[in-house]
Amino acid sequence: MYYECHMHMFMNGRNYREAVALHKNGVNEEDIRDHFAAYARAGVRYLRDGGDNLGVSARAAQIAPEYGIKYCTPIFAIHKNGHYGGIVGRGFDTMKEYHSLVKEAAAAGADFIKIMVSGILDFSRGGALTEASLSREDIREMIHIAHEEGFAVMAHTNGADAVRAVTDAGVDSIEHGNFMDEDCLLALCESRCIWVPTFVTITNLIGSGRYDDRSLNVLKEEQGERIQKGFALGAVIAPGSDAGAYRVPHAQGILDEYRELYALCADFMTKEEFEEKLGRAAERLMIRFTRQ
Questions:
Q1: CB 138 within 8 A of CB 109
Q2: What is the dihedral of CA 90, 92, 95, 100, to 10 degrees?
Q3: H or E element in which residue 92 lies
Q4: Contact predicate 194/174, CB 8 Å
Q5: How far apart are the first and last CA of the chain?
Q6: The model's pTM
Q7: CA-CA distances (angstroms) from residue 220 to 65, 123, 127?
Q8: Digitized pLDDT (tens) for each residue of the chain, 292 residues in all
Q9: Pick from 170, 175, 176, 227: which is nearest to 193 by CA?
Q10: How many Å apart are CA 243 and CA 11, to the nearest integer?
Q11: CA dihedral 109, 176, 117, 35 (to 10 degrees)
Q12: CB 76 within 8 A of CB 104
């Protein structure tokens, strides 16, 4: 059994605009079913979606049981207006508006809340972050409000400052986590937070011709060393590929993620130990992100 702890049902792994166009005038159920069928064939029985602003994940949650798949979704991600996140969710200006969005997600059947606290890697600039993180005060309040409403919090997080801020605020999972430093890794290990590194969003780009492979290989090596050290230190690391992102196909993406993560651990962990460790982390995540 495989676990896919970070994916986007509405994306197609090829072209974001094409994916949006497919669902823009109404959710395309055939596309959802095609993705579920691919996951079922691959032996993936758990999916945690990262949300969208088109209603796709909401409909997917209704369909999932037909495929024997446990599926969890935030319905939509939440970002601060003027910052990254509009491609997968809804925006706010004030904490009162944020709180209203949390309640709206709850009413729509959200299993958890996903927040966007930092930018993304700009691969055309060697992987530099597109923007700095939100303030520590905003991050702390966003996590606090969601927890008060009874939700676990999934946080799109890149950069050492952002990782330290969400960890200090008690976030439940960190997504991506690029550019952590050693202090971040130690704080992560001492917290109850689960890290979902989505490593193949970097590795699967190598050889595509879209970006400079030299820069991509540097990013792969640096992030790989962080993940490797995280495993060695005892961080709770769960498998998630960000399926639907460019060159990360549904179902195949998580198989690629398992392969790439094991390659980092093969020198100090057997395949059986690795799979058991990832399985325990994924089960822990699955329990925490299922709203009671």
A1: no
A2: -50
A3: strand 89-92
A4: yes
A5: 24
A6: 0.97
A7: 36, 12, 10
A8: 899 999 999 999 999 999 999 999 999 999 999 999 999 999 999 999 999 999 999 999 999 999 999 999 999 999 999 999 999 999 999 999 999 999 999 999 999 999 999 999 999 898 899 999 999 999 999 999 999 999 999 999 999 999 999 999 999 999 999 999 999 999 999 999 999 999 999 999 999 999 999 999 999 999 999 999 999 999 999 999 999 999 999 999 999 999 999 999 999 999 999 999 999 999 999 999 998 7
A9: 170
A10: 8
A11: -30
A12: no
Distance of alpha carbon 49 from alpha carbon 75, whole angstroms: 8
* Structural contact between residues 180 and 223, judged by C-beta atoms closer than 8 angstroms: no
Instruction: Tell me the two tokens of residue 82.
Output: 């003027």
Taking the CA atoms of residue 120, residue 55, residue 253 and residue 182 in that order, the dihedral angle to the nearest 10 degrees is 40
75 three-class SS: coil
Residue for token pair 């050492």: 160
Tokens for 25?
A: 């005038």
Rounded to an integer, what distance in angstroms lies between the CA atom of residue 275 and that of residue 272?
Answer: 5
Report whether 101 contacts 140 (CB < 8 A): no
Which amino acid is present at 106?
A: A
